[in-house]
Amino acid sequence: MNNTMERYLIEEILNGIKFDENYIEATFQYKLLLKLAKIFDEDTIFPERNIKKYGLEPNNFLKKEIDIVIEADDNKNIAIELKMPMNGQHPEQMYKFVEDIKFLEELQETEKFSQCLFIVVTSDKGFWEGTKSDGIYSFFRKNGKELEGKINKPTGKNENIYCELSGKYSIEWKEIEKSEFRYFIINIKK
């Protein structure tokens, strides 16, 4: 089977999940895994996969585990990182989005993965609208600018903590049918 995830396929999957306010990220991950098992061979889909499995040294990466991996021969693996923030903490969660994107960029550079995807789902409108539109908010709220370059950690005494992205990404929030939830998807490019 062709081991790629097209945007329309991900959008169909997201619109086919009945999200509710009681969901947590683990519930989202489980529901997504069930849907993926109907498309790909279920023996190739793995949650919480340690990067050591791919001969990668965890100390060289921002994270040690990938939320979902769809494995294939010839390093055509797909890595998927998920976020489902439901408890506010907008600037901190936005920065975690940036960290996950950076992690996926790191994985993409290894050439062990042919595709790396980042998916965010939430019903918390503070992620896509609000009074603040500067700093980290400027990338995720209406008419946001492209997410790129050096992104500083927005809170605490962490002026020297940042992620530097090598790619440029546009955040486009879309509604999930028949729900209060919205999502965005980023396909990491080399």
Describe this structure in words.
With 190 residues, this protein is of the alpha+beta class. It has a domain at 7-84 and 96-125 and 170-187. It is built from 4 helices and 8 strands, in the order H-H-E-E-E-H-E-H-E-E-E-E. It has helices at 7-16, 25-37, 90-109, 137-140, and strands spanning 45-50, 65-70, 77-83, 113-122, 147-152, 162-169, 174-175, 182-187. The strands form 2 sheets. It has a 6-stranded mixed sheet with strand order 1-2-3-4-8-7, with helices on both faces. The radius of gyration is 16 Å and the shape is globular. The two termini are 23 Å apart. The model has no long low-confidence stretch (mean pLDDT 92).
How much helix, percentage-wise, in residues? 10-25%
- Write out the strand line-up for the largest beta sheet, numbering strands in chain order: 1-2-3-4-8-7
Task: Give the CA-based shape.
Answer: globular
How many distinct helices?
4
Main sheet?
6 strands, mixed
Structural class: alpha+beta
List keywords for this structure.
two-stranded antiparallel sheet, 25% helix, alpha+beta, single chain, 190 residues
Please render the helix and strand layout as text:
Layout: H1 7-16, H2 25-37, E1 45-50, E2 65-70, E3 77-83, H3 90-109, E4 113-122, H4 137-140, E5 147-152, E6 162-169, E7 174-175, E8 182-187
Parallel strand pairs: 3-4
Antiparallel strand pairs: 1-2, 2-3, 4-8, 5-6, 7-8
Give a short overview:
This protein has 190 residues and is an alpha+beta fold.
